[in-house]
Specification:
InterPro entries: P-loop_NTPase (IPR027417), Sulfotransferase_dom (IPR000863). This protein is mainly alpha-helical. Helix content is 56%, strand content 5%. It is globular, with a radius of gyration of 20 Å. The model has no long low-confidence stretch (mean pLDDT 86).
């Protein structure tokens, strides 16, 4: 993404191991990836080599790391959002502009509405309702064109996965990588993490386990 001092950016960093597991589930549940029967071991190899849809995790993080204290960049961590979303929202409001934090200070319900409607469970339920392929099938002519195209595209893949099982949001947990990584995989990712993040604060954000 071209960087401009005239724009405001929000960057959310996340533990690379959790990113790997999260993207694995995303790929399996999106027929467009063609990975519906994929195994985690195969996905891990793609992740650690940086052979991903949006490029290498570490390169992406390092590209934005130097801007973490820029006045027009709001830099936070996924784990902080899970731990104290209220504080993150308040800081984000201050970053976006005086009118945003004043709106929250004037009416506390604004803060709680932001937290509720940007929360994981709300988004999960909302996405499931929007992308309910059974509903799209039933009301095909009434749903937005984008959903019509999506349904036809998914059908063209001849995926064994039921259309009603397409999911955009999984669990959103922190630390779930421990259920998936083998000892060898953990050691390999730790090695790359230490090499790529050498000399950065990221090593303190995500201590090697």
């Amino acid at each position: 993404m071209p960087y401009s001092t005239d724009a405001k950016y929000i960057f959310v960093a996340r533990n690379p191991k959790d990113c790997c597991v999260s993207f694995f589930h995303h790929a399996r549940r999106q027929p467009g990836f063609g990975f519906w029967d994929g195994e985690f071991n195969d996905f891990f190899e793609c992740f650690i080599e940086g052979d991903m849809l949006y490029g290498d995790y570490f390169d992406h993080l390092l590209d934005w790391y130097p801007h973490r204290r820029d006045a027009n960049v709001f830099y936070t961590k996924y784990e902080d959002m899970k731990r104290d979303i209220k504080n993150v929202v308040l800081n984000l409001a201050k970053f976006l502009g005086k009118e945003y934090i004043e709106a929250i200070e004037k009416d506390k319900s604004v803060l709680y509405n932001i937290i509720e409607y940007s929360g994981f469970e709300y988004k999960k339920n909302k996405y499931e309702a929007i992308f309910d392929m059974d509903r799209v099938q039933k009301d095909f002519e009434q749903v937005p064109y984008g959903l019509q195209y999506m349904k036809e595209f998914v059908q063209s893949l001849n995926s064994p996965r039921s259309l009603s099982e397409v999911q955009y949001v999984y669990k959103g947990n922190a630390g779930s990588w421990k259920k998936y990584f083998s000892v060898e995989q953990n050691e390999r990712l730790n090695k790359k993490f230490l090499e790529k993040m050498k000399g950065t604060e990221v090593l303190q954000w995500y201590p090697v386990e």
